[in-house]
Description:
This protein is an alpha/beta fold. The chain folds into three domains: 5-135 and 304-334, Rossmann fold (3-Layer(aba) Sandwich), CATH 3.40.50; 139-300, 2-Layer Sandwich (Dihydrodipicolinate Reductase, domain 2); 350-436, ACT domain (Alpha-Beta Plaits). It has helices at residues 14-25, 27-34, 65-69, 87-96, 106-123, 139-146, 161-173, 177-186, 195-198, 201-215, 234-242, 304-324, 331-334, 368-378, 411-422; strands at 5-10, 38-44, 61-62, 76-79, 100-103, 127-128, 152-158, 225-226, 245-256, 259-270, 282-289, 293-300, 353-363, 383-388, 399-406, 409-410, 432-436. The strands form two sheets. Strands 7, 8, 9, 10, 11, 12, 13, 14, 15, 16 and 17 form an eleven-stranded mixed beta sheet that branches. A six-stranded parallel beta sheet has the order 3-2-1-4-5-6, sandwiched between helices. Strand 5 (100-103), helix 5 and strand 6 form a beta-alpha-beta unit. Helix 4 (87-96) packs parallel to helix 5, helix 5 (106-123) packs parallel to helix 10 and helix 14 runs antiparallel to helix 15 (411-422). It is elongated. L-homoserine binds at residues 135, 160-162, 189-191, 197, 202, 301-302. The site of NADPH dihydro-nicotinamide-adenine-dinucleotide phosphate has 28 residues, from helix 1.
Amino acid sequence: MSRSVKIGMAGLGTVGSGLAKILLEKGGILAERAGVPLELKRVCVRNPDAPRQIQLPPGILTTDLEGLVSDPDIDIFVELIGGLEPARSCIIKAIEGGKHVVTANKAVLATCGWEIFRLADQKGCCVAFEASVAGGIPVIEVFREGLPANRISRMIGILNGTSNYILSEMSSRGEELDTVLKKAQEKGYAEADPTYDIDGTDAAHKLAVLASLAFQAPVEMDAVSKEGIEAVERFDLEMAAELGFVVKLLAVASKRDEGLDLRVHPAMIPAGHLLARVSGVYNAIYVTGDAVGEILLHGLGAGQMPTGSAVAADVVALARRIASGCRCSASMFLGFGLDGNGTVEICPREALESRFYIRFNAQDRPGVLAAISGILGSNGISIESVVQRGRAVGGGRASVPIVMLTHAAPVIAVEKAVEEIEALEVVAGKSVMIRVEELE
Length: 440
Ligand code: NDP
Ligand code: HSE
């Protein structure tokens, strides 16, 4: 075998430890698959004295990020720090120095990925990012290598393991969001800033990355509309079950005549649908292509070893290219060239329609239901069913939940009607709005 391919890795947290374990424990298999030995040459962390889940060979741990990125001996720079900076600058510096890059950082890719890919193209470097979406599921490779013959019309993903774990545990064990989030953090599923898991940002980052591959054009984060799971309560999950639904944080990309509809939000989906069975930290991506029909990819969406597996796949693929002397460019791991791919047309919000589950907290008094349904009616929204739970204890001023399912209606009309209803004196606080996603 030829000389080794040398790896410099920034970050030895959940994912970095997973990759280090794989490189150190499975070096023989990886070398056979790559056609060249892989050497973990340097690993950079912030705190060299922190306890680690893995024992590295002596002398490779450093806190000198600049030194690692500019080390001329390193062939592949693996960025597993997370966040925007210094991750973005390190990746750029590594490419400027002619290194290939592997990253799991969907935040960087969704906000400044195109700057990075263009630079990589100019410099003849590869940027690989399998671990950035859906943890251990090789979904990036599936889009790049498995579906080039397809026009993708829709993909629906459960792309955030932490929020799926939270919704699953809230439904099955009746736990509160904050309690389950703590468990997700302990297990290493959550982002360094866990609000990104809860408010839909992480899933939106991933949707931007996947949509770029699926529709072969740069899609950036601000093209994705997002809502998180923070308002969803156990009551809503119980009501969903009674109505024959399961609540999931969905990431949806669908091609419509008016443009690409890109959105992340909690949604009620039929309890019998395959996606409804994706629970815990599992992720899934349901894709519709004109040749392949419908496919479902399913697997662990976060955690040390599944994500380490995805990063290792990129490292091996890159090492194989380096060893065989193949030309490198950003397009190699994107699956399409950067020239001539303009921006995608985004579907205007005015064109979007949905059925909705809406929970109002309203006083238990005669006429309240009529006032609410009157406002919905005057906004052109028709009601499919109404459920009022319990009687207010202590008189008419205490509030009770009133749940309404609407027929399909324009999203902006429903939002306007809910705002008007919330202004009624008999309605208390914010309502909960959850879309009902139409899935066959
Ligand atoms: P962690 O927070 O567990 O680890 C981050 C690591 O980066 C730590 O080792 C930390 O050092 C190091 N680090 C942070 N800042 C610096 C810096 N300025 N210089 C040097 N080292 C630094 O993150 P994860 O492993 O969970 O995530 C890494 C990336 O992978 C993120 O982009 C994340 O979004 C992505 N990802 C995570 C998944 C998961 O399941 N956790 C799944 C898929 C993708 P120290 O240990 O000393 O603090
Ligand atoms: N925080 C992310 C999640 C990690 O929970 O899905 C995987 O990208």
